[in-house]
Amino acid sequence: MSAAAASSHEAVPHRGLITLSIMLATIMQVLDTTIANVALPAMTGDLGASPDTINWVLTSYIVAAAIMTPMTGWLSDRFGRREFFLASVVGFTVFSMLCGLSWSLESMVMFRLFQGIFGAAIVPLSQTFLLDINPKENHGSAMAMWGAGIMVGPIIGPTLGGWLTETMNWRWVFFINLPVGILSFLGCAAYLPNIARRLRGFDFFGFAMLSLGVGALQLMLDRGAEVDWFSAAEIWIELGLCLIGFWVFTIHLMTGKDTFIDAHIFRDRNFVTGLVFIFIVGIILLASLALLPPMLSRLFGHSTILTGLVMAPRGVGSLVSMILVGRLVRFIDARVLVVVGLSLTAWSLHIMTGFTPQMDDHLIILSGVVQGLGLGLVFVPLSTVAFATLDPKYRTDGTSLFSLTRNIGSSIGISVVTVLLTRNTQINHAELSTHINPFNPALQAIPGAAQGNPTGLSIAEQLVNQQALMISYIDDFKLMMIVTLAAMPLVLLLRMPKRAPAGDAVAAAME
Q1: Which tens digit of pLDDT belongs to each residue from 398-430?
Q2: Given Cys at both, which of 72, 153, 206, 340 links 30, Cβ 3.0 to 4.6 Å?
Q3: Residue 422, C-beta contacts closer than 8 angstroms, at least 6 positions apart
Q4: CB 187 within 8 A of CB 20
Q5: pLDDT digits over 352-364, tens only?
Q6: In angstroms, rounded to a whole number, what is the distance separating the alpha carbons of residues 12 and 17?
Q7: What is the number of other CB atoms lying within 10 angstroms of the CB of residue 41?
Q8: 190: helix, coil or strand?
Q9: What is the distance between the alpha carbons of residues 504 and 502, in angstroms, rounded to a whole number?
């Protein structure tokens, strides 16, 4: 079946089974980006690693996936979209098993590297296939299904990883991919349609420069906190390589012929605006997910399992939102849905600025549900509108750039809020400590503190640490709220495709 046929009114056989098989692979890959995080302490002893070196288990996967994601379009055209997707699922599943069988840190890092290489194409190709096998009027529902997997995966990942590690063994964090990968492969091999190949030359120079920029950026973001950022020569080198790679790639893209990514793709205003939006969504989604589990553990004393239960309603909110918006996007202007979604997201972050160490979990759950609803309302119409006016021949390259931009946004967001959290905690602690003196009436509430009793002073120090950390979390939530509100005017740059006349629901999108 050709791409054109797949996107026409011709019925695609077994569309439901294809969607299920594709989504199994998507959830498996997205889940793996977060499920292994909580298992790192358990891996340290078994693999003979130190707390510093064990982070390469995450870094190797992130960098490999980031470098290979832009390759998705060219490899799909060269080897066939169906064949490449099947190979990616097989490779990802095999190397997941090998990660579970790792006997040393070196073997684990190597297997994670290959897991990232094979897994990089799964998410963008799954989005491409869902757009291909569904007529244009059903793209909203298709993106709702796809978005549910993309957004819910990172939410349940840490909880599932923690449960598997505590009840079984950290190796099951990787072994769990085997049945999912097999089912996905069998379904895709049986029903996934063949897509006509489009041979094109390989721009090695462009790929090398883009890989240099993306790889150096991911290394810098992942290693920064560990080496104290710009106080280390490593970070300056990685920053320089990142700037050189992106600068040379941009010049090459603007002036070269038959470049790695066709520059014409950036002439589509919807697509470019969609990239900016998905970058912001990446910041908000994973940055808030990176902040909440340690906050619940450090300030509220929650276990891994309880943390997962408190955060689960966020995933429920996303699922409900996506089920609704998949239908609403047919009748309501997608730009309106995006604005409503951003407003709900900003409101949820405003609620989070009211967190206190003395509160119960109700406010955390409420903010999570509201944020899940808001991000769902943004993600689905955005994923639909971004590709509504894009030429189908650029679709695979577009989805790979879409995934890459979201991942870079997530990495930058996590790095920024983590740095601010650490530095603001120090600043807040110093500021609050100035008020700890015998003349402060509030100190009288702590027995012996005003008289210099060591026990009382220790309690006062704990309270100062607690309040300094809570204020720092609130500062991060305020920053994300401001970023969300600042993104709203970008909606004016989006344009809706012309609605198809009756009897012709697949009319060409407005250019």
Answers
A1: 888 888 888 888 888 888 888 888 888 888 888
A2: 153
A3: 225
A4: yes
A5: 999 988 888 889 8
A6: 11
A7: 11
A8: helix
A9: 5
What is the pLDDT confidence band of residue 9, given thresholds at 50, 70 and 90? very low
Helix ranges restricted to H, 434-489: 454-487
Specify the residue for token string 């709220």.
Answer: 481
Helix axis angle for 122-133 and 395-433, nearest 10°, is 130
Q: Which two tokens stand for residue 47?
A: 């693999």
The DSSP code for 48 is T
d(CA 331, CA 346): 25
Reported as a single tens digit per residue, the pLDDT across 364-396 is 899 988 988 888 888 778 877 888 788 888 888
Span 455-482, average pLDDT: 83
Residue owning tokens 């100035």: 434
Report the b/e string of 313-322 with b at 16+ CB within 10 A: bbbbbbbebb
Q: Helix or strand or coil: residue 301?
A: coil
What is the number of other CB atoms lying within 10 angstroms of the CB of residue 238? 21
Confidence of residue 159 (pLDDT cuts 50, 70, 90): confident
Q: Residue 509: what pLDDT? A: 32
Q: What are the structure tokens assigned to 344, written together?
A: 């709900």
The whole model's pTM is what?
A: 0.77
**Number of neighbouring beta carbons within 10 Å of residue 430:** 11
Query: Are the C-beta atoms of residues 320 and 373 closer than 8 Å to each other?
Result: yes
Which CB contacts under 8 angstroms, 24+ apart, belong to 204-208? 205/252, 206/249, 206/252, 206/253, 206/256, 206/259, 206/260, 206/261, 207/70, 207/71, 207/74, 207/260
DSSP 253: H
By the 8 A CB rule, do 174 and 96 touch? yes
Distance CA 216, CA 228 (A): 17
Identify the band that residue 190 occupies on the pLDDT scale cut at 50, 70 and 90: confident
Residues counted in the chain: 511
**Site of tokens 């119409």:** 381
Cα distances (Å, whole numbers) of residue 110 to 59, 61, 119: 11, 9, 14
Rounded Cα–Cα distance for residues 218 and 408 (Å): 8
Alpha helices in 386-441 (DSSP H): 395-433
Q: How large a percentage of the chain has pLDDT more than 90?
A: 11
Show the domains of the chain with their CATH numbers: 1-202 (1.20.1250.20), 264-435+447-511 (1.20.1250.20)
Chain centre distance of CA 366 = 22
The yes-or-no verdict on residue 460 having pLDDT over 80 is no
